[in-house]
């Protein structure tokens, strides 16, 4: 693969093959034309397929286990306290822009998850939605924030409270944020010096979580004739127009990669994973909760507890191991057998209709070549990610619900995103077997950076 003079990565968080490649292909003439001239195809995400760490895995070529980051929140110690939010300081492996800085070459990085607080690089960085607000230092150099404020009148880090019943406000903010993100990308592409440019638009992700049941007739809770039924189509048409204007500002020989970190799918419902642990006698409360309570706030009888869980798009089971946790109950010699029993029991749980659920309970040591930080003892894909794992106690709804425990949500993550690479010397056509871990070596080849690791460029 010949090196390109410039490389631009357009990240669309949660963009899914079924929409980008199929359902809305005719509504997206710019992307469809780009795809015809690209090496493209569905791309397998990481395990777990979560925004944090997926973008950092993509830009480093490392697994979540190697990074020691398994989601937005991770254990900081073998205690019973709440999980700690991951930040850019959690990512210790160099990402592509770090490698470019080391080589003395400039980059522009905009909104890529895992970049707050921003790090000084050769070039410019605008950090991600994890920044608390724009009063915090969210750009490097710091003065870039003033430039963005003048350009936008108020830079949008994210959609405020996107899990909200205020559908009109949320949808408008999603459209506005995507338009602004592409506008800022055009501005930086034409005013900054760069050989590598990477930006991420969170709009598709926020749209999917807020509106999937309204737009997908196949969603189990779809409401026919609802006023938001055409929102997905309208958004993807607008996204295509933004893409077209951005591509017009790039030098003609720029290599362009359009990519997503994971896909999305309908959320069938929620499974109260800690309530299941209680039912199985694996989690014991010292005092009954009075209403909805996060597991970290519940009074747990740790001397009688075998396991507890945190939730989200996937579930995390933590075992209470003697000599590891402060009040461990599982003898170290029984760790593997206990974990196997819990995994088998979870995988046997039926859905709310008594049918096989298809849950998968995964072991970190089998997923990753290295396991750093404090990984969950089991990564649980409830219903193979079609059900959300709900950690809240005291909801009073049994084990199953049709809703989320942290606000309205109609989509869960899928394990397959998109990949479309248009670059000099890369033959167009559909590719099979693409992996998110192919991105970093491909970018290194395009940028003329040294390769490391076992993965090789896609072409």
From TrEMBL:
A Pfam family matched in the record: Phosphodiest
Membrane-spanning parts: none
Identification of the protein by name: Alkaline phosphatase family protein
């Amino acid at each position: 693969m010949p090196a390109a003079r410039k490389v631009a990565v357009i990240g669309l968080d949660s963009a899914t093959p079924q929409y980008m490649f199929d359902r809305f292909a005719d509504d997206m003439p710019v992307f469809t034309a780009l795809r015809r001239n690209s090496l493209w195809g569905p791309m397998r995400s990481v395990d777990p397929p979560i925004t944090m760490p997926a973008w950092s895995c993509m830009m480093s070529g490392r697994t979540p286990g190697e990074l020691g980051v398994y989601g937005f929140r991770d254990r900081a110690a073998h205690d019973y306290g709440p999980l700690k939010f991951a930040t850019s300081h959690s990512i210790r492996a160099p990402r592509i822009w770090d490698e470019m800085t080391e080589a003395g070459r400039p980059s522009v990085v905009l909104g890529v998850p895992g970049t707050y607080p921003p790090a000084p690089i050769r070039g410019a960085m605008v950090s991600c939605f994890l920044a608390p607000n724009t009063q915090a230092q969210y750009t490097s150099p710091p003065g870039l924030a003033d430039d963005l404020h003048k350009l936008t009148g108020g830079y949008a880090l994210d959609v405020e409270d996107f899990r909200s019943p205020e559908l009109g406000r949320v949808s408008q903010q999603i459209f506005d944020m995507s338009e602004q993100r592409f506008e800022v990308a055009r501005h930086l592409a034409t005013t900054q010096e760069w050989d590598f440019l990477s930006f991420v638009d969170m709009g598709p992700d926020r749209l999917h979580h807020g509106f999937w049941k309204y737009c997908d007739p196949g969603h189990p809770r779809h409401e026919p004739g609802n006023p938001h039924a055409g929102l997905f189509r309208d958004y993807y048409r607008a996204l295509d127009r933004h893409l077209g204007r951005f591509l017009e500002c790039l030098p003609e020989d720029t290599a362009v990669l359009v990519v997503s970190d994971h896909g999305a799918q309908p959320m069938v419902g929620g499974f109260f994973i800690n309530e299941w642990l209680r039912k199985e006698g694996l989690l014991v409360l010292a005092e009954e909760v009075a209403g909805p309570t996060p597991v970290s706030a519940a009074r747990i009888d740790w001397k009688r507890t075998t396991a507890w869980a945190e939730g989200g798009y996937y579930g995390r089971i933590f075992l209470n191991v003697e000599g590891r946790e402060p009040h461990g109950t599982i003898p170290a010699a029984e760790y593997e057998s206990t974990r196997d029993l819990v995994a088998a029991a979870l995988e046997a749980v039926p859905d709310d209709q008594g049918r096989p659920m298809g849950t998968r309970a995964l072991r970190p040591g089998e997923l990753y070549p290295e396991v750093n930080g404090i990984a969950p003892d089991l990564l649980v894909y409830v219903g193979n990610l079609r059900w959300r794992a709900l950690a809240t106690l005291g909801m009073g709804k049994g084990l199953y619900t049709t809703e989320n425990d942290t606000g309205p949500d109609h989509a869960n993550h899928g394990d397959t995103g998109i990949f479309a690479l248009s670059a000099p010397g890369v033959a167009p056509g559909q590719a099979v077997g693409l992996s998110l871990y192919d991105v970093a070596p491909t970018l290194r080849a395009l940028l003329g950076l040294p390769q490391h690791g076992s993965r090789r460029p896609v072409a």
